[in-house]
């Protein structure tokens, strides 16, 4: 450099090389903000796309589109049924039968007619009969099942060609059950009963194991239709014959369904002795579904409650509540809980208040809540008022005869309170407090309460009073041991029921046995080779 000029720093070339790249990169804060902004814009675009797709999905469909979707669901169920029949897989057949409930809620008359036309040829007698019993409403949907106004037109595409041969028996019975369900929902009782009788005769004329699940469904609706027209007693012989046939064929589904139908038939006409004999002579199948098991336990609990076996009845009702569906069957759970409340009161126990505040039980159990309050207090006047006010509801629930027995429980509760409050009280005062007619009635009731162990006292007939004994420490008696035993028994029963309810893949144990057999064979071959090598080593060469 010339004299007097400043010497350039050795770092200048390097800074000049780094300066363009540094200038080209934005500051770190600006870079983060830009990335966040781009990400936010992409998310907004994705949300817009998703909202558009959701709007398209949630857009109200026309009646024709709903009908086409329902036809597709029916067709897929029938294909699943045919697949199960060809493969002889009872699991697939049961799954197709379970799909009936979803189809039933959306079924309409046009879809029902088109289903029959698509699967039955024009010359089919069964198809013609099904079309004749389906109501004729051209171009409309039914409001009772589909929820679409009757003024909404339904446009279904024309059929290209009708089938040339009859469907397999399982498909025929499946479609007949759908028609029977639809007639039941339309309140056409006589037409449904006539069709159910014909379908039952058709099922009984065929001896096919793949029809067992469908046959059980047919008998259920057969009994339901005749119960609604008041002729349930006429089919008792048919149900007994069908149950005997199901037992001979080892049909677990048919046995469980028909046994429940027979118990319902007997209970409907108050034939509790015959129902008890049927229970004692039959065995409920262990592999039955939870729904059928819950029904059987409910009927068994009702029978035991009439026979004064309240402990067994309460256990059966509690198991029925546990096995009932959690998110449906509200009517069944209401009926079971009503009977369970009465049985628990007859046992001398008071139901928990949380039972009466559940949303699906609050309205149905309101009369039973007032009844429980009267029994808990021991007020005989309030008990009479409640029974008179809700006498109609109790008779509809078929619990009135059991509630009549609660009168003595109310008196026992009042006696227990009197025994705790007074060490000595006259029979006349007891009759006045309990609103009894005379002192003789009071003496008889107190004597029975002493014999049953409700109170610990002595009646002095000469003086006309009741002398209470000193209160004994309950922990010095066997009462805590009985309570502990009761709780342990309950826990063991719950565990056993849970183990029984477990499901395993079919023939899973055979694979394990096959693996064990193969391993044993390999061990035997290895052992033989080892023995041969030892013999060769022992003999030596040559």
Please, could you describe this protein's structure?
With 542 residues, the chain is mainly alpha-helical. The protein has helices at residues 12-24, 28-58, 63-87, 90-106, 109-119, 125-133, 143-146, 169-185, 189-204, 212-228, 236-248, 252-268, 272-281, 290-306, 310-323, 330-346, 366-377, 380-389, 391-396, 400-404, 406-421, 427-433, 439-451, 479-501, 508-539; strands at 424-426, 457-460, 465-468. Strands 1-3-2 form a three-stranded antiparallel sheet. Helix 4 runs parallel beside helix 8 (169-185), helix 10 (212-228) runs parallel beside helix 12 and helix 22 crosses helix 23. It is globular and about 95 Å long. Residues 1-6, 8-35, 49-57 and 138-152 have low confidence and may be disordered.
Question: What topology emerges from the helices and strands here?
Answer:
Elements: H1 12-24, H2 28-58, H3 63-87, H4 90-106, H5 109-119, H6 125-133, H7 143-146, H8 169-185, H9 189-204, H10 212-228, H11 236-248, H12 252-268, H13 272-281, H14 290-306, H15 310-323, H16 330-346, H17 366-377, H18 380-389, H19 391-396, H20 400-404, H21 406-421, E1 424-426, H22 427-433, H23 439-451, E2 457-460, E3 465-468, H24 479-501, H25 508-539
Antiparallel strand pairs: 1-3, 2-3
Summarize the structure.
The protein has 542 residues and is mainly α. Helices cover 69% and strands 2% of the residues.
User: Count the helices. How many?
Assistant: 25
Q: Please list the strands of the largest sheet in the order they lie side by side.
A: 1-3-2
Distance linking N and C termini: 102 Å
SS elements, strand count: 3
What amount of the residues lies in strands? Answer: under 5%
Q: How big is the Rg?
A: 38 Å
Low-confidence stretches: 1-6, 8-35, 49-57, 138-152
In percent, how helical is the residue content?
Answer: 55-70%
The oligomeric state of the chains shown is: single chain
Structural class: mainly alpha
* N-to-C series of helices and strands: HHHHHHHHHHHHHHHHHHHHHEHHEEHH
Overall pLDDT level? 78
- Outline, from the CA principal axes? globular
Main sheet makeup: 3 strands, antiparallel
């Amino acid at each position: 450099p010339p004299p007097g000029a400043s010497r350039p720093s050795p770092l200048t070339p390097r800074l000049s090389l780094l300066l363009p790249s540094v200038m080209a990169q934005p500051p770190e804060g600006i870079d983060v903000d830009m990335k966040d902004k781009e990400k936010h814009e992409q998310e907004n675009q994705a949300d817009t796309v998703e909202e558009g797709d959701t709007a398209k999905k949630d857009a109200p469909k026309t009646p024709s589109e709903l009908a086409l979707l329902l036809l597709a669901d029916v067709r897929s169920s029938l294909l699943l049924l045919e697949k199960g029949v060809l493969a002889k897989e009872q699991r697939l057949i049961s799954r197709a039968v379970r799909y009936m409930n979803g189809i039933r809620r959306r079924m309409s008359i046009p879809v029902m007619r088109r289903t029959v036309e698509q699967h039955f040829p024009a010359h089919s007698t069964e198809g013609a009969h099904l079309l004749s019993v389906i109501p004729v409403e051209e171009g409309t949907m039914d409001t009772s099942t589909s929820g679409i106004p009757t003024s909404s037109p339904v446009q279904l595409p024309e059929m290209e060609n009708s089938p040339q041969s009859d469907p397999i028996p399982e498909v025929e019975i499946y479609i007949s059950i759908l028609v029977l369900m639809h007639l039941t929902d339309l309140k056409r009782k006589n037409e449904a009963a006539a069709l159910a009788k014909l379908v039952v005769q058709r099922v009984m004329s065929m001896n096919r194991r793949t029809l067992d699940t469908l046959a059980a469904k047919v008998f259920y609706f057969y009994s339901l239709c005749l119960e609604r027209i008041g002729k349930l007693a006429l089919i008792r012989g048919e149900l007994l014959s069908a149950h005997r046939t199901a037992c001979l064929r080892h049909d677990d589904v048919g046995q469980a369904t028909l046994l429940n139908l027979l118990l319902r038939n007997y209970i409907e006409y108050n034939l509790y002795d015959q129902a008890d004999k049927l229970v004692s002579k039959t065995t409920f199948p262990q592999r039955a579904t939870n729904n059928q098991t819950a029904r059987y336990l409910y009927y068994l609990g009702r029978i035991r409650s009439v026979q004064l076996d309240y402990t067994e009845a309460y256990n059966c009702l509690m198991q029925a509540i546990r096995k009932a569906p959690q998110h449906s069957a509200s009517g069944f759970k209401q009926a079971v809980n009503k009977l369970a409340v009465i049985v628990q009161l007859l046992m001398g126990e008071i139901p928990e208040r949380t039972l009466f505040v559940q949303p699906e039980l609050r309205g149905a159990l309101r009369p039973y809540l007032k009844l429980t309050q009267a029994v808990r207090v021991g007020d005989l006047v309030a008990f009479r008022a409640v029974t008179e006010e809700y006498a109609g509801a109790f008779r509809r629930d078929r619990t009135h005869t059991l509630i009549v027995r609660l009168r003595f429980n109310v008196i026992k509760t009042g006696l227990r309170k009197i025994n705790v409050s007074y060490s000595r009280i006259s029979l006349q005062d007891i009759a006045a407090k309990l609103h009894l007619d005379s002192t003789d009635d009071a003496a008889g009731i107190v004597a029975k309460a002493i014999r049953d162990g409700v109170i610990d006292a002595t009646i002095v007939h000469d003086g006309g009073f009741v002398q209470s004994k000193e209160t004994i420490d309950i922990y010095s008696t066997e009462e805590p041991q009985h309570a502990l035993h009761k709780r342990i028994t309950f826990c063991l029963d719950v565990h056993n029921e849970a183990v029984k309810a477990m499901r395993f893949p079919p023939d899973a144990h055979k694979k394990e046995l096959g693996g064990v057999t193969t391993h044993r064979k390999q061990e035997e071959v290895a052992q033989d080779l080892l023995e041969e090598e030892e013999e060769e080593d022992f003999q030596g060469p040559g």
